[in-house]
Amino acid sequence: MLILGFYGGPSTEFETDSPTQTHDGAAVLLKDGEVVAAIEEERLNRIKHSYAAPLRAARFVMEQAGVGLADIDRIAVPFQAGSADRLLRRLYLADPSATHPLDVADALRAQWRRYLGADVPREKIRFVPHHIAHATATFEMSGFDQALVMTIDGQGDSESGLTLKGSAAGLELLQQVPIPESLGHFYMQAIGFLGYRLFDEYKVMGLAPYGDPERFRAPFEAMCELLPQGRWRLHMDLLDGMFAQLMPRRKGDPIEQIHKDFAAALQQTLERAVFHALTHFRETTGLSKLCLGGGVAHNCTMNGNILRSGLFEQVFVHPAAHDGGNALGAALSVHRDQARHQPRRLRNVYWGSPIGEPASVESRLRAWSDFVDIAHSAEVEETAAELIAAGKVIGWVQGRSEFGPRALGNRSILADPRPAEYKGLINQMVKTRESFRPFAPAVLEEQAAEYFELPAGATQFPFMTFVLNVQPDKRDLLGAVTHVDGTARVQTVSRSESPRFWRVIDAFGRRTGVPVLLNTSFNNHVEPIVDSVEDALACFLTTGLQALVVGDFVLTKKDGAPRAALVPQLPNHVRLHERRQREADGEVRDLFELRRAVWNGEARKPLPGPIFGLLKRVGEAPIAELACQAGLPLEDVMPAMEELWAERCLVMRPQAAQR
After folding, report:
1. pTM of this prediction exceeds 0.90
2. Structural domains in the chain plus CATH codes
3. Which residues 6+ apart lie within 8 Å of 592 measured at CB?
């Protein structure tokens, strides 16, 4: 049976005027319960956390199986039909000119008919409650016969979390967490005091170890009241009282000790509530294994503390625990209705786009030969390890991309894990992010226990879902990946599941005596993780990365490359906007903007009039020709075009690739 999991908002990437609160759209294809392909829409349309309907993603996963929409037996959608109907009606009320059908099944069928070219019978569509999808994804891939299953996020449908018993008989509901008690919403609202917002939660998790929770312990304990039977009650109104102690930090302001203390108290409050619930259900059910899902389950500090507590014998956290993973959870839930539970442990998530056959990869790289030197390597892992051991920071692109928010060795930036100064170096070169945020170590599975404190009987941590203690005698050695509290977000690398990544770490270990690499996602701060060869080239050429390895090819940058010969184009989700505005002095002025779709609307970038005029001409001509047509000096044009490329407001292609 072919089951398509489909999760996303009602809009396409071309529509920027009907935002929703959905995010991280994705598509997954199962064949007889096995994943054929899975990818988030953001990887393909290049809109971070994209809310758009996952139409590109759906096409991709079906292409991987060589099937069309008419061949699909079931389409699994991870929300309740009633919740979606209410959303459609709110959108319709907000815009009376809208043409949204008021029935979600009809809306989806119309969308698929228009963009995917098939009329799907209603009886093929299955709606799966949001949190059941979260729970199914983590339990069905945990390898456990039975387990306690907990989902925690902001909200989905009419709840913010569930606690269930997972077994061969299915999922048995034990407790529901209503939306007013949402730990995800609480965490998100609280981080506003630190100058952060939705999707910045992981930054606050990284800041917390620098603080002392005692400073804000009392007010946070008042905000989260623990109740019998593993419940809690949130008093969100008490957050307003924090203004007396901490005026909210504005974005870009310095991070001071009071902000670190606030982050520490917030993290402690989250864990206090979760441990309260887990302790209750561990005692009342006797279940010794735990599965976690939902966006809050990406809090790997919390996960590590649960693991080390000994409360459960084994803990599994799905690597795509966030909403993007619900396309998978919904598809698995529909499959589970047809088949028995088969406890098999998830081994890898290399389910995304392949880079292609070597001849295709080489052809696409050679189109950029005016800009990069390209060398084939018969032992590319050894060559990469030599570069890293020599102090280079490299991009590493192999095989199929990873599903979920982590780069796990196929779309990664790799560096030496030892020099502490590499934290700042990589931030300066590529990431443009806060200095306190840690990087992750990837270590050979066979030698992980030498460098990290592993719980008894646990040797495999392949998904960066847990923070573990670094062995005390290795903390100074692993300066670039050891956090201030002596921990690290560890990835163990298996020779059988990720052979090429294993070999490059092994080669580095043979050169340095340390079988560990710094591994961080291959992207800059404005884009999703790179997916294609072209994405990787764009990131390489617009950052300080010193080498790029794609398949068996090693690329370095050419000095003085003719970037004015590049052909710029506007991506589908970027548009130019011109308007007139009366200023405070009474003058009416023309304003020029570039507007880029983001997950819930548009980001706006002011442009000088001459650059705006030049961008209106983009299409098939190189930058130099466009500047000439616009009567602008090339030396004035190039810095603006380079900046727009680095911010992914433009796509650049060499003329050879155009042909």
Report:
1. yes
2. 2-77+80-127 (3.30.420.40), 137-319 (3.30.420.40), 358-557 (3.90.870.20), 563-658 (no CATH)
3. 576, 577, 578, 606, 607, 608, 609, 611, 612
